Amino acid sequence: MKEKIQKLLSDKKLKNTETRARVLEAFLLTKHALSNQDLENNFEYVDRVTLYRTLKTFEEKGIIHQALDGTDKNKYALCSENCSSVMHHDSHAHFTCSVCASTICLDDVQIPELKIPQGFSLESTNVILNGICNACTN
């Protein structure tokens, strides 16, 4: 795990700090999106400002993306390997479980290209699916 974290940070030209390594490890160990509060709860101590800056840096570098789920919480999930600081390839649906409240990236469920009226400029598209995840169904 430590080697994977070091490689990912190195590939994105980021210094390996304790907070960055801990945050990245939390994302690597989970299959669902994490909020600031989730991360704070995972750590015995973390400076909120440092955590916020770490998440912003990771988002800017293409390590994580916002996983919108229709709530007012900012949640983040790991990006695919081909994301970069210039282009995020995160045009996939997000699934929110009505039982456990987890938000999960559905990388195989792509958002279709939408035709919008002339004169409009599309900046982003989000698809949020709601239901019961496979962990809660079983």
Key features of this structure:
138 residues; alpha+beta; 3-stranded antiparallel beta sheet
* CA-atom Rg in angstroms: 16 Å
Helical stretch tally? 5
Largest sheet: 3 strands, antiparallel
- What structural category do the secondary elements indicate? alpha+beta
Spatial strand arrangement across the major sheet: 1-3-2
Structural shape: globular
Q: How far is the N terminus from the C terminus?
A: 29 Å
In total, how many beta strands?
6
> Order of SSEs, N→C?
HHEHHEEEEEH
User: How much beta, percentage-wise?
Assistant: 15-25%
Give the integer mean of the pLDDT values.
88
Q: Helical residue percent?
A: 25-40%
Uncertain parts: none
Descriptive overview:
By secondary structure, this protein is an alpha+beta fold. The chain is 33% helix and 20% strand. The chain is built from 5 helices and 6 strands. The strands form 2 sheets. The chain has a 3-stranded antiparallel β-sheet with strand order 1-3-2. Strands 5-4-6 form a 3-stranded mixed β-sheet, with no helix packed on it. The radius of gyration is 16 Å and the shape is globular. The protein starts with a helix and ends with a helix. The model has no long low-confidence stretch (mean pLDDT 88).
